[in-house]
Amino acid sequence: MHAANNVSDPRRPDKQNRYKPPAGHSNAADDLTYDCMNLLGMIFSMVGLMMRLKWCAWMALYCSCISFANSRVNDDAKQILSSFMLSIFAVIMSYMQNPQPMTPPWAQLI
């Protein structure tokens, strides 16, 4: 019975090749987008809070979103959540201190 299963089995174990990533290809562990955006989000959040710059607070929220999108499944969720909360807090506090609409930095130079 076992020999009959091998005859009807269309798979060919002698033709199976294990996948090897191409040489020179970047590994997923080498991708630093998540870490860089997380760090930039924290920096922009702190600058937005300390200097009351709305555009820095919005950039912090943007960097936090990019960091979340590029994070891996096994990354620390607490760090992502704290980055989001800090950036949202920076946006809320900057608008609580000055509720006027945001003016772009280049418009102030004119």
In this structure, how is the largest beta sheet organized?
none
Name the helicity range. 55-70%
- Classify the secondary structure makeup into a structural class: mainly alpha
Name the shape in a single word: elongated
**Strand element count:** 0
Low-confidence stretches: none
Instruction: Note the beta-strand portion.
Output: under 5%
How many distinct helices?
A: 4
Mean pLDDT: 83
What would you note in describing this structure?
Helix 2 (about 35-50) packs antiparallel against helix 3 (about 55-70). The chain is about 55% helix and about 0% strand. It contains four helices and no strands. The chain has about 110 residues and is an all-alpha fold.
Please give a quick description of this structure.
InterPro entries: ASTER. The chain has 110 residues and is mainly α.
What key phrases describe this protein's structure?
4 helices, single chain, 0% strand, 110 residues, mainly alpha
Task: Walk me through the topology.
Blueprint: H1 2-8, H2 33-51, H3 54-69, H4 77-97
Helix pairs in contact: 2-3, 2-4, 3-4
